[in-house]
TrEMBL record:
This is Aminopeptidase N. It comes from Methylophaga thiooxydans DMS010. Residues 30-194 form the Aminopeptidase N-like N-terminal domain. Belongs to the peptidase M1 family. Residues 562-883 form the Peptidase M1 alanyl aminopeptidase C-terminal domain. The keyword Metal-binding applies. The gene is pepN. Its EC number is 3.4.11.2.
Length: 886
């Protein structure tokens, strides 16, 4: 019976409905016959009834498959012996143990969704997480079914000389007809989402790594031959990650070979398939000439992230997709601490928190807010979010903070030992930490269950007679969809007390015999309102709270601009120094916004200029930190601080402040820029990166000063640069200046780099972010340029994504043109690639926060999408949640 024609409305999956699988797969033998248009897949599954599972029929998932034949224990099954829908194959009346042979055909060249098996240029590759494997063959495509895979690939030898899959290569051979074959075996049981296959004419860059127990592992990066000079940085990063995971978590690699393949068409950054990571080319390929410091940095962390998944994700995987943060939160936390160890820890923390506050806080305050462990979804692809990843990482980091470093390591050792080869839950993770250390994290687990960003209010009082300092912490968490009220969270609050000279004071709580020496201590906040009494405090202190951003919360702590300015230069905690500076700048900018709205004259804050001068001349401060401290918050972040964002006033206020700081401190910016302009070959290391970032910040102020000569300096930097960091910094500044020089700079940049996709994406992105008035027209023009294809996710993100997310003035244009543009593109994209389409919708996440007129326009854009027939589940889920009543 074939019911594939029946229409399905998007189904909601609930955590509460979880059931163990009815059948398990012990072994999966897959044979792929690759052909240009059609690929034949023969899957032989050794299956058995799950003794712990429910009494139910065997259901295999499958989408967009042509079923050629089905055999049970060698006998062909007729059409009346199974049932088929558009997404499942149901086989009733099965014995306890059996073998299924399923032959299907798929059409990778028709696959524009980039899920399952697809072409990226001439490379055939796969993406199976979360539910892509069902587009390759019928299978119980859920992470709690773990099987041992053996994969044979047969294909034309000329066209596909390289054929890869997971695990170790076992055997290979050639046929007389010009085809060849290879067999890969992965001894580690894995869920289908970690399956991978790659075939193409690829160059391989090799290296090796000797593990702590002395095993030699071959490292291979496969790339299009034209990119063979771009692999070194990724290989170095991989070796650093392998070593770090041994040293820090005691985790060793477990196969003879570790492979990375770079492809141009990829829906996200990279994928941790067992032994065969597949990467978006932009997240792996780099040379100093083509990649910026930020690219080098990101590549190092993504290579590490995917590598770390080998343990946190692959050896121990997720029971179901509600547990996604089990692997993603933990692995992000691991890659963040890797990057902190290898580079500047302070800068790493600032960047992580900046990202969290600007993206995750917005998500947590919007219509898609969900807990780190969600309890329902329509389309799981929509839940690869900043909440699952970045907030999930903060949650694991807080566990580490609460129990301590050694204790945390004991806990992760127990977790990996106890659950090796299993598919488990976030509860299992927490339980392992608890059991290893005899701690109680039951209240802490609310961080996994409750959505929304808690708000902490801090009140302090000093009694000069009793020498007592009182710190009262009150917590509240706003309602989120489906969660009207919240229970108090268990929050680690890192605090320090400073006296008037900026010296740290000892901290002794009322019931303690001894004072706590040292700059910072962790208070454990568990109540809705809680008071901490510090005794023997000799003089009135200023409390520096939430040091290192010890919890993902919003802080309401009324400090005057002078107190912020004091912390900005005196705090012992680098993160809080930066944060105090940002809060001071935000206060000043919001006052300027109010002045603009009331037509008051704008005045520059001399307090801020003085502090900037002190920072810029502080010889002891890391230049990377100076650069961060002198960087003004983004317009988007400022918008998030206002009840009703005023995009134009924010832009104007920020420009005013920047220009006036630049004019006041021009000499100093000039001097610092010149001092940092030492000719030196590019090297990727924390010190050199710090110098380049400060140099570029100085240049951006110099250009902002409005002095036309500074544009010449910008052009000179572009001309002299031997690396993309300095070249792109120059180009970014040029694109906001109308005139011939701008057009020439853009033209010659493109001419020089048009063969290089990674660089061309930067060229698209800088133009999309331009503040010049005709930017949308230009973006539309660029969509017709030879450099752009709507089928390529990197192009889409660089041009459309950049315009909609990082060009607030034009995206939020009062006439609604930005919103209409986005809606049109989403409808086109949804037919091609639903995941990318759904991602683009994120630009409208905060639509209800804007003024009445803009809200109406954004609503119209959302409705124009919602009213389309045949929307993908991806876009359907987001658009309906955005439009749902508040
Ligand atoms: N696990 C993948 C993400 C898969 C996304 C699927 N829509 C990459 C990562 O987080 O490492
Ligand atoms: Zn990941």
């Amino acid at each position: 019976m074939d019911t594939s024609a029946t229409e399905q409305s998007p189904k909601v999956t609930l955590l509460a409905d979880y059931e163990q699988p009815a059948y398990l797969v012990d072994e999966a033998l897959l044979q792929f016959d690759l052909d240009s248009a059609k690929t034949r897949v023969v899957s032989t599954l050794t299956m058995r009834k799950n003794p712990q599972g429910p009494e139910a029929d065997c259901i295999l998932d499958g989408e967009a498959l042509t079923l050629v034949s089905l055999k049970l224990d060698g006998k062909k099954l007729e059409g009346n012996q199974f049932q088929r829908t558009t997404s499942q194959l149901l086989i009733p009346n099965l014995p306890d143990k059996f073998e299924l042979e399923i032959i299907t055909e798929i059409e990778p060249d028709q696959n524009t969704a980039l899920e399952g098996l697809y072409y990226s240029g001439s490379i055939l590759c796969t993406q199976c997480e979360a539910e892509g494997f069902r587009r390759i063959t019928y299978y119980p495509d859920r992470p709690d079914v773990m099987s041992v895979f053996t994969v044979t690939i047969v294909a034309d030898r000329e066209k596909w000389p390289v054929m890869l899959s997971n695990g170790n290569m076992e055997d290979q051979g050639v046929f007389d007809d010009g085809r060849h074959w290879v067999r890969w075996h992965d001894p580690h049981p894995k869920p289908s989402y970690l399956f991978a296959l790659v075939a193409g004419d690829l160059h391989v860059q090799q290296d090796s790594f000797t593990t702590q127990s002395g095993r030699e592992v071959a490292l291979r990066i496969y790339v299009d031959p034209e990119n063979k000079h771009k692999c070194d940085h990724a290989l170095t990063s991989l070796k650093q990650a392998m070593k770090w995971d041994e040293d820090t978590y005691g985790r060793e690699y477990d196969l003879d070979v570790f492979m990375i393949v770079a492809v141009n068409d990829f829906n996200m950054g990279a994928m941790e398939n067992k032994g065969l990571n597949i990467f978006n080319a932009a997240c792996v390929l780099a040379t100093p000439e083509t990649a910026t410091d930020d690219d080098f940095y990101t590549i190092q962390s993504i290579v590490a992230h995917e590598y770390f998944h080998n343990w946190s994700g692959n050896r121990v995987t997720c029971r179901d997709w509600f547990q996604l943060s089990l692997k993603e939160g933990f692995t992000v936390m691991r890659d963040q601490s890797f990057s902190a160890d290898l580079n500047s820890a302070a800068v790493q923390r600032i960047d992580d928190v900046n990202g969290l506050r600007s993206m995750q806080f917005a998500e947590d305050a919007g219509p898609m807010a969900h807990p780190v462990r969600p309890d329902s979804y329509i389309e799981i692809s929509n839940f690869y979010t900043v909440t699952i990843y970045e907030k999930g990482a903060e949650v694991v980091r807080m566990i580490n903070t609460l129990v301590g470093d050694e204790e945390f390591r004991k806990g992760t050792d127990l977790y990996f030992d106890r659950h090796d080869g299993q598919a488990v839950t976030t509860d299992d993770f927490v339980k392992a930490i608890e059991d290893a250390n005899a701690v109680d994290l039951s209240q802490f687990k609310r961080w996994y269950e409750q959505a929304g960003t808690p708000e902490l209010t801090i009140d302090t009082n000093y009694d000069p007679i009793e020498h007592r300092f009182t710190l009262t912490v009150t917590q509240a968490c706003p309602a989120t969809p489906g969660q009207a009220t919240k229970q108090p969270f268990h929050i680690p609050l890192a605090v320090g007390l400073l006296d008037k000279s900026g010296t740290s004071l000892d901290m002794q709580l009322e019931d303690e015999a001894e004072p706590h020496h040292g700059d910072t201590r962790i208070l454990s906040v568990t109540e809705a309102s809680q008071t901490f009494e510090f005794i023997n405090v000799s003089s009135e202190p200023l409390a520096s709270v939430l040091r290192g951003f010890s919890a993902p919360v919003k802080l309401k702590y009324d400090l005057s601009n002078h107190q912020l300015a004091f912390l900005m230069v005196n705090d012992k905690d680098s993160f809080n120094r930066w944060d105090a500076g940002q809060k001071l700048i935000i206060n000043i900018l919001l006052e300027l916004v109010a002045d603009i709205q009331q037509n008051n004259p704008l005045v520059l804050s001399s307090l801020l200029v003085n502090q900037f001068e002190r920072i810029l001349t502080d010889k002891k401060l890391d230049p990377a930190l100076i650069a961060k401290m002198l960087t003004l918050p983004t317009e988007n972040y400022l918008a998030a601080q206002m009840t009703t964002p005023d995009v134009d006033a924010i832009h104007q206020a920020r420009e005013f402040l920047k220009r006036n700081i630049a004019v006041s401190l021009k000499g100093l910016f000039n001097q610092t820029y010149e001092k940092l302009s030492v000719k030196k070959a590019y090297d990727f290391n924390a010190d050199d990166m710090a110098m380049r970032s400060l140099k570029n910040v100085c240049l951006s102020y110099l250009v902002a000063s409005g002095d036309p000569l500074q544009l010449q300096r910008c052009l000179r930097q572009m001309k002299q640069a031997d690396n993309m960091t300095e070249l792109l910094a120059g180009l970014r500044l040029m694109v906001d200046q109308s005139g011939l020089e701008r057009e020439n700079a853009l033209r010659s940049f493109y001419e020089q780099w048009k063969q290089d996709r990674q660089v061309v994406d930067k060229w698209l992105a800088v133009q999309a972010a331009s503040t010049l008035p005709d930017t949308l027209i230009r973006v539309k023009g660029l969509m017709k340029h030879e450099a752009f294809s709507i089928k390529n996710p990197n192009n889409v993100r660089a041009l459309i994504g950049m315009f909609c997310r990082n060009n607030p003035v034009h995206f939020h244009a009062k006439d609604g043109s930005g919103y209409r543009f986005l809606a049109e593109q989403i409808l086109v994209l949804d037919k091609l690639n639903p995941q990318v389409a759904a991602r683009m919708l994120g630009a409208l996440n905060s639509w209800r926060r804007y003024d009445e007129q803009r809200q109406q326009l954004m609503k119209q854009a959302l409705e124009s999408i919602a009213e389309q027939q045949d929307l993908s589940a991806d876009v359907y889920e987001i658009v309906t949640k955005y439009l749902a009543a508040e």
